[in-house]
Every structure is written in structure tokens, then in C-alpha cells.
Design goal:
Largest sheet: 7 strands, antiparallel
Oligomer: single chain
Number of helices: 6
Number of strands: 13
Radius of gyration: 20 Å
Low-confidence stretches: none
Shape: globular
Strand content: 25-35%
Bound molecules: zinc ion
Distance between the termini: 43 Å
Order of helices and strands: HHEEEEEHEEEHHHEEEEE
Helix content: 10-25%
């Protein structure tokens, strides 16, 4: 189409932040960090390469996702441990905190709950920022690698995409039939994954993650959590995913329990206060 005469002026309109966060309830990071200082590791699980593990974290405890052996990206799902219908909502988390999350950001649950499930209290990659390509770390853009898109684009039958890994892990952890478990798997936090959108075509891109063994992302559980973490078949996601081609490494999840009394004054967040009537 031909540009209208005022195209320049229309493009020059300044953007407005959709969700200013100055009224968003803020976490007490100082309290959480002081509690973390008292915490000791009470459980450790591992996600082998191209597989997923599950873990449970009671409200008021911490979990830490750690890179071991080599650069590796992880796909994280979170559920309310007592109610799988309350799950992580990556889209709203992105709308509130931006395309990538780091220290102080929170992982929000789906409607009608919309409350913080977990708060990031430490991120060893928080120095990375936004690189010259527009890339950043810990992505809430990408959904998860899955066998359906692989089949759509390449006609493949690959079974170790994160979607399938998370499905098998949740089925194992809960005893749910595989396809019932699959329906509970949702869009992820791509831990350690470095992504962005190309400036010229607006396409989603990934690049080799800057994560190195010892790097970690540490989160405070705001409610009782069931988590699942897949060691993505893409490895550091520097080349391709949805295949066995990339070098792939395990990930470790540590659950950390603070000393009794370390969180005095803190209480789990209530479910969202909207009355649910929708005006009917
Ligand atoms: Zn993946």
C-alpha cells in the first residue's frame, strides 16, 4: 500500500508502557535474601540431557537452577502443588516485566489466580543486559520446543523436545495419564536462554547462551510449588533444537530451606482480588 501523507507523523508517536509497574506489589527482596543466607540445601534433583525432572518446593523455601558440566538451557514449568489448574502464565509475566526476567521479577500464575508463584532473588547472569542484537537472557517469549512444530516444519517425529520431556516428567510425578499430563504443560520460562527479535523482520531468534557451569537462577517459592525442568535438546541453543544434534548437558535443581523464623512477617500472596462476576 502507498504510505499516507502523514505516515512519518504517525510513526513518530511515542510509545506508552502498557502496564506501568509502579503500583505492582513489590517483593521484600531484602527479607528474602536474608532468609536465603540462612538456607541449606534440603533436596537436589537433576535433569539429564534431553530429559526433564520434577521437584516440589513448599511456600517460603527457595529453589536454585544450576548449570553443570556445560552451557545448557532449561525449560521451566510451575504449578500450584495442590491445584494444577493454577500454573505459570508466561504471557502476563512478559506483559508485566518484559521479554526477559531477572532479579526482583516475579513469575505470575494464570487467571483467575494471577498472583506471584515465585520471585527471582538471585541471577548470576544479571550482568548480561541487552546485547547488540537485542538479545537477553531468561526468556518469557518462546513457548517451548515441541514435536508438533517440528512436524509442521520438517515432518519429523522427535520425542525429546521440552514439551514431551515435561509431559513425561509430569505424568511420572503425578500418576496422571500421559495425555492428561500433556494438557497441563504450559508456556515456559526459558532459563539461561538468550533470545530476542530481529530488528528487520521481527522474527524470534536465539543465540548461544552465555551460561557457564556454576551459573544459577535462584527463586523464592511464594506458594507451594510443583516444578518441572527440561534440559532442552538445543543445549545452549546456539544452533538448533528439536534434534539430537546439539551438545547437551544436565541441569541441577537445589531446594533450599531457610532457618525457622527467617521469614517472620511474610505470608503467601492471596489469590487475585477481582470478584469474578465479569459484570454478569
Ligand atoms: Zn527446548
Amino acid at each position: 500500500m502507498t504510505e499516507p501523507a502523514d505516515a512519518r507523523a504517525r510513526r513518530a508517536v511515542a510509545p506508552v508502557i502498557c502496564y506501568p509497574t509502579d503500583t505492582l506489589p513489590q517483593p521484600d527482596l531484602a527479607l528474602f535474601r536474608a532468609a536465603l543466607d540462612t538456607a541449606r540445601i534440603t533436596d537436589t534433583v537433576g535433569a539429564p540431557p534431553r530429559e526433564a525432572c520434577t521437584f516440589r518446593v513448599p511456600a517460603g523455601q527457595f529453589f536454585r537452577i544450576v548449570s553443570v558440566d556445560g552451557p545448557q538451557v532449561g525449560d521451566l514449568n510451575l504449578w500450584n502443588a495442590g491445584d494444577l489448574s493454577e500454573r505459570f502464565y508466561s504471557g502476563k509475566t512478559r506483559a508485566l516485566h518484559g521479554t526477559h526476567v531477572s532479579t526482583g521479577d516475579r513469575l505470575w500464575s494464570c487467571f483467575p489466580h494471577l498472583r506471584p508463584m515465585a520471585t527471582i532473588v538471585a541471577d548470576s547472569l544479571d550482568w548480561y543486559g541487552i546485547d547488540d542484537f537485542g538479545g537477553a537472557v531468561h526468556d518469557v517469549i518462546g513457548t517451548r520446543c515441541d514435536p508438533y512444530t517440528g512436524n509442521l516444519l520438517s515432518g519429523t517425529q522427535y520425542h525429546h523436545c521440552c514439551h514431551s520431556n515435561l509431559t513425561r516428567a509430569l505424568a511420572r510425578a503425578t500418576g496422571l495419564p500421559l495425555h492428561t499430563a500433556e494438557a497441563q504443560v504450559h508456556d515456559v520460562l526459558n532459563v539461561f536462554m538468550c533470545t530476542g527479535f530481529t530488528r528487520d523482520t521481527g522474527q524470534y531468534f536465539m543465540k548461544a547462551s552465555p551460561v557457564r557451569p556454576g551459573d544459577h537462577l535462584t527463586l523464592f517459592a511464594e506458594i507451594d510449588l510443583l516444578g518441572a525442568l527440561s534440559a532442552c535438546p538445543g543445549g545452549d541453543c546456539g544452533a538448533e533444537h528439536s534434534s539430537d544434534t546439539a551438545p547437551c548437558f544436565p541441569l541441577r535443581v537445589e531446594v533450599l530451606t531457610p532457618e525457622p523464623g527467617a521469614l517472620d512477617g511474610w505470608a503467601p500472596p492471596a489469590r487475585n482480588g477481582y470478584d469474578g462476576s465479569h459484570g454478569a
